[in-house]
């Protein structure tokens, strides 16, 4: 593949995943790859994306191809942001800072998780444009503190995750008795995640203790009163929810089923995307999350009306395969694949990609 300093003999995200899987402990591999229940939605996300067929345009000058866009006040080199993901030091000692540096070098936003294993300011200082992902916590003082820290660190948006009143029942983690090794914990949230218990997941126990399942529409007003940053909702799949969110002043929507890690049997995110785009009707950006693996997937999302996508597991595979260098490889692959897909579809820019027709 193109790009100096990338991992050798890697031509796709699948290659990167194989490298990472060979280097990571089995329970860590399962933590990254796994979903909830029987992982029906994990598979459905991928199958639904594969069914989206793009109708290319012909006789278009694609000698130049612009992949850039603006996302929440910052220029991005791609219609891509790194999704919020917890405990990245579990995967590589460089952790969130390594991934954030790679995102910054690639010119794409990096979303810092509430459950980051490194402090907000340290991760933001390593990155370019950053957004902060917020889980709704029982302790509102902690929520306010997190918002202030995100603002002080220069984050450009707050991404409120709305599909985790409790953690999905992730069978791989339960079977493995998944636990965090010593020295890795959610440093931005008080409290110990607890010890290993056979047949249990420490992550499920911890989130049940600190997440507030009473999150509802009325809390959006409270959130907007406590931050000056744009508020983006992540985890929306229903068009009526999207319409109500925009009516209540939300600044962005992420169509997501949490990568199949929450409700098993939920609609694939890409299947829900067109109805959400129609309901929003241009009033705010709509991003797609869940299942994106290739530049062709990014093109599919754009053709269905998405402003951009979030990329999750591929970044973690990159981190596991080679730290910052591995993440840089993944982002470089996506860039190369998207540029190729755009040109082959007859699209010199992202606006023309959004005018493409699709089938399937």
Written account of the structure:
This protein is an alpha/beta fold and 360 residues long. The protein has one domain: TIM Barrel, CATH 3.20.20.70. It has 14 helices and 12 strands. The strands form 3 sheets. It has an 8-stranded parallel beta sheet with strand order 4-11-10-9-8-7-6-5. β8, α10 and β9 form a beta-alpha-beta unit. α1 packs antiparallel against α13. It starts with 12 loop residues before the first helix and ends with a strand. 53% of the residues are buried. The model has no long low-confidence stretch (mean pLDDT 95).
List keywords for this structure.
360 residues; alpha/beta; TIM Barrel; two-stranded antiparallel sheet; 42% helix; 12% strand; globular
Any low-confidence stretches, pLDDT <50, length ≥5? none
Cα Rg: 19 Å
Question: What is the correct CATH architecture?
Answer: Alpha-Beta Barrel
- Name the beta content range: 5-15%
**CATH secondary-structure class:** Alpha Beta
Number of strands: 12
- Domain module count: 1
Biggest β-sheet: strands ordered side by side in the sheet? 4-11-10-9-8-7-6-5
Main beta-sheet annotation:
8 strands, parallel
Which fold name corresponds to the CATH topology?
Answer: TIM Barrel
Structure, briefly:
The protein is of the alpha/beta class.
Give the arrangement of secondary structure elements.
Layout: H1 13-23, H2 26-33, H3 40-51, E1 53-55, E2 69-71, E3 74-76, E4 80-82, H4 95-106, E5 110-112, H5 120-126, E6 130-134, H6 140-152, E7 158-161, H7 171-176, H8 202-210, H9 217-225, E8 231-236, H10 239-247, E9 252-255, H11 269-280, E10 286-288, H12 295-303, E11 308-311, H13 313-344, H14 350-353, E12 357-359
Parallel strand pairs: 4-11, 5-6, 6-7, 7-8, 8-9, 9-10, 10-11
Antiparallel strand pairs: 1-12, 2-3
Helix pairs in contact: 1-13, 4-5, 4-13, 10-11, 12-13
Active site: 258 (proton acceptor)
Pfam families: FMN_dh
Keywords: Flavoprotein, FMN, Oxidoreductase
């Amino acid at each position: 593949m193109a790009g100096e300093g990338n991992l050798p003999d890697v031509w796709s995200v699948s290659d990167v995943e194989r490298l990472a899987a060979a280097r990571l402990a089995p329970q860590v591999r399962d933590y990254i790859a796994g979903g909830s229940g029987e992982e029906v939605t994990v598979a459905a996300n991928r199958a639904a994306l594969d069914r989206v067929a793009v109708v290319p345009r012909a006789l278009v000058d694609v000698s130049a191809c612009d992949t850039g866009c603006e996302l929440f006040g910052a220029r991005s080199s791609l219609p891509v942001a790194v999704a919020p993901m917890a405990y990245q030091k579990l995967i590589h000692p460089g952790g969130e800072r390594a991934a954030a540096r790679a995102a910054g070098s690639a010119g794409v936003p990096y979303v810092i998780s509430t459950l980051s294993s490194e402090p907000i300011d340290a991760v933001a200082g390593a990155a370019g444009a950053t957004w902060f992902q917020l889980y709704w916590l029982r302790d509102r003082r902690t929520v306010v503190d997190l918002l202030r820290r995100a603002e002080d660190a220069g984050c450009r948006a707050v991404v409120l995750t709305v599909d985790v009143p409790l953690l999905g029942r992730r069978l791989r983690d339960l079977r493995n008795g998944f636990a965090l090794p010593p020295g890795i914990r959610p440093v931005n949230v008080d409290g110990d995640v607890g010890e290993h218990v056979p047949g249990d997941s420490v992550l499920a126990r911890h989130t049940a203790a600190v997440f507030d399942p009473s999150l509802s529409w009325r809390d959006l007003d409270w959130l907007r009163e406590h931050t000056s940053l744009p508020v983006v909702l992540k985890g929306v799949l229903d068009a009526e929810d999207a319409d109500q969110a925009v009516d209540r002043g939300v600044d962005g929507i992420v169509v997501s089923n949490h990568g199949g890690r929450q409700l098993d049997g939920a609609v694939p995110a890409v299947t829900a995307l067109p109805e959400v785009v129609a309901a929003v009707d241009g009033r705010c950006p709509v991003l797609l999350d869940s299942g994106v693996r290739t530049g062709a997937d990014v093109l599919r999302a754009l053709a269905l009306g998405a402003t951009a996508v979030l990329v999750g597991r591929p970044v973690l595979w990159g981190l596991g395969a080679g730290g910052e260098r591995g993440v840089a490889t993944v982002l470089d692959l996506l860039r190369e694949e998207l540029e190729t897909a755009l040109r082959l579809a007859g699209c010199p820019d992202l606006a023309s990609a959004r005018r493409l027709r699709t089938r399937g």
